[in-house]
Amino acid sequence: MKRKNLLLKICYIAVFSALCFAGTSISFPLGASKVHLGNFFCILCGLLCGGIIGGLSGSIGMTLNDIVFGYPYTSFLRTMVTKFLMGFLVGSLFRLLVKKKLNGKIFVWISALLLALLFSYMLTMYCLGKPNYTVDKMILCAILFGLILINAIFSFKLSNISNCLSFSIIVGISANVIGEFYIRIFFDMMLGNTYEVALATSLSKLPGSLMTSIVTIILVMLLFYPLYKATHKINQFNDLENDIDLNKK
User: pTM for this one?
Assistant: First the structure.
């Protein structure tokens, strides 16, 4: 039984890795970066099959895409780490919230409040000339606050499951955006660039990363329920059967 279960996991990871690879190839340029669908398939896998399968699928599929299309080792090492973290966090957090029957709306609003306070504090410290509070940190904080604020505004129209879903997606995407931003700076400095050059490079990639995140959130929120409903009976790793009401979003 354990051997069969392992074989099934490998098969699921192979299928979703291929989808992540193809999704990353479906892209269009935006500034110094690109908008793609790889994150969508990574998060979808995490939601349908669990954090481990989702994280591994995203990591393997998108890392292979970087290798095949000739990106440097710094790029695919960054992808390997951030995409696993994203898929793992979304799949694991969503299951935790749903199975414990926690109130997703409360988590959304608490996060929005904390980010608002954090941004206000960082802006104050920056205006006072504190060196630890720089423009890049405020930009990232503002982006995350914007995403969670939009979620909070729509939270009153969503069911608890949908609020748990949207909150989990934003947490995973935030980890991906922040991870990519700072790991890119780290590798650029390792290659001999100054911090200022590395920071400028990383900032130039933010528009593409942000647009990819927005597209991912919209697609997952629109398609998760139909796809879950279509696959829940044949999905061997569906452990949400008793937690999701298919007749109520």
Answer: 0.94
